[in-house]
Design brief:
alpha+beta; Rossmann fold; eight-stranded mixed sheet; five-stranded mixed sheet; 15 helices; about 20% helix
Length: about 800
């Protein structure tokens, strides 16, 4: 009775205290159960019971109170039956430090979108760049699966933002899960954004238009359309897709393990500690064998440790990310090493990622965490950077251990995973995860001999004309004595990439190295072109002026000779002869002659364009004289050898002009008909051929070039002209032109009878600046054009990705380096 009176008095006193501005969540552990809490929270002004956090155990509860926190905590020991402890409900965030993503994102990331069966032999498919990504080879996913015939068993729970339940790659292994943010069945993260109005232009969003990587948020770089990327960049979608990506990595390692999505985080990346606890107890009590926790918090929690102690006692294996602050610091749950394996991040070259936390008090093992390709909501894929994507490699590996030995528990799994590849960086726990080493530690079987590939340095910046050197290493795995043959791809234009020696033989223990050399070509100005030895012909009026000038000189010399005493007739004769000679030369007397005199104008040519037309269409003829037409013009007489091609009787070249055009009219024909067009003037006849084809003759359909960009003088391009159908008897002559002398094409190319296309070569000349050229093709009144870019010699400036591949039999492993050429 006295106790009840004391409690009532305490409650009255607390009610009189100044209430907090908002209710505070408090996690309470009590052996008195729910009934004891209900007595404490009899009045809502004291507290409100939200619910149990430990499932069926009934000892851990969440309550909210409007009272000042210290006042409420002080009340508990004396007023709550069976009180054990209490702590404030914390708020956790997936999005802590901003991971440093490369800009631009390497083109090799998610480059192969070919769908391949996964797991092998199943009807489920996934992107090849996901199944066969470098990280999978580094931790030996495929080798472990094939050599030991393991694909994962049991249930792997992931406490995260949820999952896309419709992703095709995850079908058949996803369990329903639970959404603790909404207190409802199902672990879908799509509920966070599918409310009206939809943040996408359509739901689901449309496929990406160009499939180029677009940075979406702080932890992912996804292949999405740009508008979608903009929508998801920041609040409230900073962590959207995180859970689907983590689930995808677990599935990559253990494709037949069942996946249990436990949604405790919102799409903005926040979660309450109370929901994390609920998810842990739910996983244990619903048959999970492994729990993945790709999150961290810096403040310790007694209830978090007790929840994980409970999971440990029930035989569950747990893994957690070590955090992305790039510091040596203590984070939870990774630091709870009796219950959890903390996982740091490494590069593909087995170095610590710059963003990864380190320190053996937090890190048990490391795993790749850069450019990890994984599943992403709405049936697509993304690449992620962060320890969030390192931890699920270990969780998936725990499922393989469970597959091998179903009795494996946390301590056994941690011991097995500790068989890892040593790292040079300090504070990375037992080293980098190697699934073959881990699995081999608990069985007499072993993985097949294999090797890993790495390169140093991973980046280089050079000037065109210089070399970049890298050291590539092949490290034997499982006693490999294979011969590894090297290849290098991705060299920029006007550069070569070579590896010396071209192959290495492993000794089973030590890494074998080779030197990769990228040799570039300098970009320099070409020497100036020599001026042509050519003098423009003198125009007629200049000749007359020169002639009169020399006559004036002759008169002046004559007078001078007459005035001199004594007279010098020889000088006068010489002067006269010189004047007559120079005048004759200036006026053309000693120039080249045609028909006996320089001034004779003749018919030089007659050409037709086009030279092949459909019956009923026309062609344009051009007659050209050897010089300007005389006063009154020049009349050129025309004739045609076929009635199907009619020409006017004559065409006149106007006085002072050197050419004139005329029209060739054609009539319909049933078969291809040749016609000879003749032009005559001053005793000279020139001819041109015209082919009149039936109306059903094919037309010019397209013109293409490959490549469309070449180095001037060093490379050529291959052109292809294509007709709408097979060429008729006699073939089809396609006329070709180039609008710039830097690119030369033949005058025409013929599509053979019965064929529909023909090729031609575009030869190029050296240029000093990038030069655009238009190549035109014309046939039967149709013209097509295509553009060619001619670049100056030398390696173009830019960023390039070299891929160095080591191959031995059916095994092939690659590594990449980035080269910037200035």
């Amino acid at each position: 009775m006295k106790r009840r009176m004391w409690l009532a008095g305490a409650l009255v006193a607390l009610l009189c205290a100044t209430p907090a501005k908002a209710d505070t969540g408090v996690i309470i552990r009590t052996t008195g159960g729910l009934s004891a809490l209900q007595v404490l929270c009899l009045l809502p002004t004291t507290c409100t019971v939200v619910g149990a956090l430990d499932g069926t155990l009934g000892q851990v509860f969440l309550v909210t109170t409007p009272l000042p926190l210290q006042n409420f905590l002080a009340l508990l020991p004396g007023s709550l039956t069976g009180f054990v402890d209490a702590e404030v409900d914390q708020v956790l965030s997936l999005i802590g430090s901003l991971n440093i993503l490369p800009t631009p994102i390497p083109a090799t990331v998610m480059s192969d979108r070919t769908l391949v069966p996964y797991p092998a032999g199943s009807t489920t498919t996934a992107w090849d760049s996901y199944v066969n990504q470098p990280a999978a080879s580094i931790v030996e996913v495929q080798n472990a699966q094939k050599s030991l015939n393991l694909t994962g068993t049991g249930i792997v729970a992931d406490i995260d933002t949820g999952v896309d339940p419709n992703h095709p790659a995850l079908q058949g292994v996803l369990l329903q899960g639970y959404d603790f943010t909404r207190n409802q069945a199902g672990g879908s993260e799509l509920n966070d954004i599918s409310s009206s109005p939809c943040p996408f232009t359509s739901c689901p969003p449309p496929p990406c238009p160009n499939c180029s990587p677009a940075k979406v948020n702080q932890s992912t770089a996804a292949v999405l359309d740009q508008s979608t990327a903009a929508v998801l960049d920041g609040t409230p979608y900073a962590a959207f897709g995180h859970g689907t990506m983590v689930m995808g990595i677990i599935h990559l390692v253990a494709p037949t393990a069942q996946l249990l999505p436990l949604k405790a985080f919102h799409s903005d990346g926040t979660a309450s500690l109370s929901d994390i606890l609920r998810a842990i107890y739910y996983a244990v009590q619903n048959g999970a064998n492994v729990i993945n926790m790709s999150f961290d918090m810096k403040t310790s929690s007694a209830e978090l440790q007790k929840a994980l102690d409970y999971a440990n006692q029930k035989g569950l294996i747990c893994a957690a990310s070590a955090g992305n602050d790039g510091m040596q610091e203590i984070v939870y749950p990774a630091a709870l090493q009796s219950d959890v394996m903390g996982v740091a991040s490494t590069t593909d070259q087995d170095a610590r990622s710059s963003f990864s936390n380190y320190g053996n008090a937090t890190v048990w093992v490391a795993a790749p965490g850069e450019a990890i390709v994984s599943t992403y909501p709405y049936s697509t894929y993304a690449a992620g950077w962060g320890t969030s994507f390192s931890a699920p490699f270990v969780s998936g590996g725990a499922s393989l251990l469970h597959n091998l030995q179903p009795s494996t528990v946390q301590s056994g799994a941690a011991t097995a995973v500790a068989h890892a590849v040593p790292l040079a960086d300090a504070g990375m726990g037992n080293g980098r995860l190697d699934l073959c080493l881990a699995l081999a530690s608990v069985t007499t079987s072993s993985c097949s001999p294999d090797f890993s590939v790495s390169a140093t340095p991973t980046t280089a910046t050079i000037t065109a004309g210089q070399q970049a050197n890298f050291t590539v290493s092949a490290a034997p795995l499982h006693g490999s004595t294979q011969t590894v043959t090297w290849s290098c791809t991705g060299a920029p234009p006007q550069a070569t990439c070579s590896v010396s020696p071209s192959s290495v033989t492993l000794d089973g223990k030590n890494a074998a190295t080779a030197t990769v050399t990228l040799s570039t070509r300098a970009r320099g100005f070409l020497p100036p072109l020599a001026l042509p030895r050519y003098v423009l012909p003198m125009q007629p009026w200049w000749a007359l002026v020169a002639c009169f000038a020399w006559l004036a000189v002759a008169v002046m010399l004559w007078n001078l000779s007459r005035a001199s005493r004594p007279r010098r007739p020889g000088l006068a004769a010489i002067a006269g002869l010189l004047a007559i000679s120079l005048c004759t030369y200036s006026c053309g007397g000693y120039g080249p002659s045609s028909g006996g005199g320089r001034g004779a104008t003749t018919l030089s040519s007659v050409v037709l364009n086009p030279t092949s037309v459909n019956g009923g269409s026309s062609s344009t003829g051009t007659v050209t004289l050897s010089a300007a037409a005389p006063s009154g013009g020049a009349t050129i007489y025309l004739s045609s050898s076929a009635s199907t091609a009619a020409v006017p009787a004559s065409v006149t070249v106007a006085a002072g002009a050197s050419s004139a055009t005329f029209t060739v009219s054609t009539s319909a024909v049933t078969t291809s008909t040749p016609a000879t067009i003749s032009a005559s003037y001053a005793g000279v006849t020139q001819t041109a051929s015209l082919t009149v084809v039936p109306q059903a003759s094919p037309t010019l359909s397209s013109e293409t070039l490959n490549p469309t960009s070449v180095t001037g003088g060093a490379q050529s391009s291959m052109g292809t002209v294509t007709l709408s159908g097979p060429a008729l008897t006699g073939g089809a002559q396609i006329l070709l032109t180039s609008n710039n002398g830097a690119a030369n094409v033949p005058a025409s190319v013929t599509v053979a009878a019965g064929a529909s296309s023909a090729t031609f070569t575009v030869s190029t000349s050296a240029v000093t600046v990038s030069t655009p050229v238009t190549i035109s093709a014309s046939y039967a009144g149709v013209t097509k054009t295509v553009s060619l870019t001619i670049a100056p010699p030398g390696t173009p400036a830019g960023s390039y990705t070299l891929t160095i591949t080591g191959t031995s039999g059916t095994l092939s492993h690659s590594t990449t380096v980035q080269v910037t050429v200035n």
